[in-house]
Specification:
alpha/beta, five-stranded mixed sheet, about 230 residues, 6 helices
Length: about 230
């Protein structure tokens, strides 16, 4: 099992980024639900197997990651078809999510034609409210300029593309930690983004739930999430 774990930050045998990466290969995702400020999740496969409407919640949203449009090697020779399968499963949900969040690596090499393919396939998704955070594969060629031009139109992006938004009394913060990757894959937030984050959290303190979105999904402290900072 250890051969498949690249970042076991919690020493629990689980590579959480690898988990979502593998889910992308299988064409699935995670449905997150919030009730009374408590966050819970289940996979699309679990939802399909249950085959019944989901319990009422304050808010639900769907997370996908690592679609890697443009990749064609042995691990998955048809990532576009896999992405279509994931969207078909989202469309088949008995209760549609309020919105969709893609947490990075939309493409393999951040080429315009790869983004074009991603956008065209995404049109089939019935959930039209979509948010994004970049993965390192989305900012390879131009520091994320093309990514920001395409995917931050509906939000008030700051700096290199961080932003926040609110849904049903829940405040979401989308961070960018892939523009200055260090040895070992540790991303950097930087002073400017941390200062903005502190101010944004203070402004949203009346909202009862605070969710932070970024590439490298994980749990634990900032360093464990790949969110270190140099001052």
């Amino acid at each position: 099992m250890s051969d498949y774990i690249s970042h076991d930050h919690e020493d629990d045998g689980i590579d959480r980024r690898g988990f979502l990466h593998c889910m992308a290969w299988a064409g699935t995702g995670l449905l997150w639900t919030i009730s009374g400020g408590v966050l819970a999740s289940r996979t699309l496969a679990q939802i399909a197997k249950a085959g019944e409407p989901l319990p009422a919640t304050d808010l639900s949203f769907l997370q996908i990651s690592d679609s890697h449009i443009g990749f064609s090697k042995e691990a998955n020779k048809d990532v576009t078809e896999t992405f279509k399968i994931a969207l078909d499963r989202i469309n088949a949900m008995p209760t549609p999510p309020a919105f969709l969040i893609h947490t990075g690596d939309l493409t393999q090499l951040s080429k315009p034609e790869e983004f074009d393919t991603f956008d065209e396939v995404l049109k089939s998704c019935r959930t039209k409210d979509v948010f994004y955070v970049p993965g390192e594969h989305d900012v390879l060629n131009d520091g994320g300029k093309l990514y920001r031009e395409r995917y931050l139109k509906s939000v008030e992006g700051k700096g290199s593309g961080w932003y926040s938004f609110s849904k049903n009394g829940v405040h979401f913060i989308a961070l960018v930690n892939v523009l200055d990757l260090q040895a070992g894959g540790l991303g950097q937030l930087g002073d400017e983004q941390l200062e903005w984050l502190e101010a944004d959290v203070k402004r949203s303190r009346n909202e009862y739930t605070d969710c932070r979105l970024r590439s490298y999904p994980s749990l634990g402290g900032l360093s464990a999430m790949g969110l270190g900072n140099k001052r």
